[in-house]
């Protein structure tokens, strides 16, 4: 079997990894024991690089087309897939061993993905502002432009230090309080009780991204929420996906 090719974003961090969306297929590939290699792309080069390989553009919140990563290329089938959720769906259909959508749960997990992103999307601005610190100058400029367009906010109003940043942190904690209630309704450590699924990868990859991007004291703050639940979820999923 030829290794699959995952396109991910370059950064200044050791090992580069920082973005939650490319992390999701990386966790899924590792969980399914599928060989893959990573191609690193500067954030500012994504539109040109992805168009050059023939990737399908994704949709921005305003409905416009935009080239994004992750993109997965599978030389074994010739498939080229854009978007982390579509990649997960492709992997499940093409390589069904070790399912990530167990018990025909893909439709429900797609709904969970939308609900979870909707839950965190306002508060997470306090984490996004840290991303510019780990990108090259050109990529940081591009990141600010894209995020400002997504949220319809000038960058200097995105999550400035002070009362607004504090309010965003409170929103993020409130979102995790709700997610904690979701987990409490499961009779097990996973969203689906004792059954691991892509829903757990979704949550863990956002947590993993926070840990990679925020300051040490900020990660300690997140880790303290809900009795240490989120640090434990991340550790459990990393172990399950053999990335611990």
Summarize the structure in words:
The chain has 244 residues and is an alpha+beta fold. Helices cover 52% and strands 10% of the residues. The protein has ten helices and six strands; from the N terminus they run βαβαββββαααααααα. The strands form two sheets. Strands 2-1-5-6 form a four-stranded mixed sheet. Strands 3-4 form a two-stranded antiparallel sheet. Strand 1, helix 1 and strand 2 form a beta-alpha-beta unit. Helix 1 runs parallel beside helix 3, helix 4 runs parallel beside helix 8 and helix 8 crosses helix 10. The mean pLDDT is 96.
Class by alpha and beta content: alpha+beta
Number of continuous helical runs: 10
Q: In which order are the strands of the major sheet placed? A: 2-1-5-6
Total beta strand runs: 6
Q: If you compute it from the alpha carbons, what radius of gyration comes out, rounded to the nearest whole angstrom? A: 18 Å
- Quote the distance from N terminus to C terminus: 25 Å
- The average pLDDT score comes to 96
Q: Fraction of residues in helices?
A: 40-55%
Shape: globular
Order of helices and strands: EHEHEEEEHHHHHHHH
List the helices and strands and how they pair.
Layout: E1 4-9, H1 20-31, E2 36-41, H2 46-52, E3 58-59, E4 65-66, E5 71-74, E6 79-82, H3 84-94, H4 106-120, H5 125-131, H6 137-151, H7 163-184, H8 198-213, H9 216-224, H10 229-240
Parallel strand pairs: 1-2
Antiparallel strand pairs: 1-5, 3-4, 5-6
Helix pairs in contact: 1-3, 1-8, 4-8, 8-10
Quick overview:
Helix content is 52%, strand content 10%. With 244 residues, it is of the alpha+beta class.
């Amino acid at each position: 079997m030829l290794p699959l090719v995952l396109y991910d974003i370059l950064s200044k961090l050791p090992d580069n990894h920082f973005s939650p969306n490319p992390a999701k297929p990386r966790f899924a590939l590792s969980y399914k024991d599928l060989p893959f290699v990573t191609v690193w792309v500067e954030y500012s080069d994504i539109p040109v690089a992805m168009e050059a390989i023939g990737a399908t553009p994704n949709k921005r919140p305003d409905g416009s087309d935009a080239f994004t990563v992750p993109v997965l290329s599978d030389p074994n089938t010739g498939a080229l897939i854009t978007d982390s959720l579509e990649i997960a769906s492709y992997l499940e259909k093409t390589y069904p061993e070790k399912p990530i959508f167990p018990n025909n749960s893909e439709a429900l997990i797609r709904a969970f993905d939308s609900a979870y992103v909707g839950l965190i999307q306002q508060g997470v601005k306090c984490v996004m502002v840290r991303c510019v610190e780990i990108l090259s100058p050109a990529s940081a400029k591009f990141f600010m432009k894209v995020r400002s367009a997504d949220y319809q906010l000038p960058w200097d109003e995105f999550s400035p230090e002070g009362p607004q940043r504090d309010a965003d942190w409170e929103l993020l904690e409130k979102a995790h309080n709700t997610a904690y209630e979701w987990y409490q309704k499961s009779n097990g450590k996973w969203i689906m009780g004792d059954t691991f699924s892509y829903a757990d990868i979704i949550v863990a990859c956002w947590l993993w991204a926070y840990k990679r991007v925020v300051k040490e004291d900020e990660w300690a703050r997140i880790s303290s929420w809900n009795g240490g639940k989120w640090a434990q979820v991340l550790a459990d999923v990393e172990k399950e996906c053999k990335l611990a």
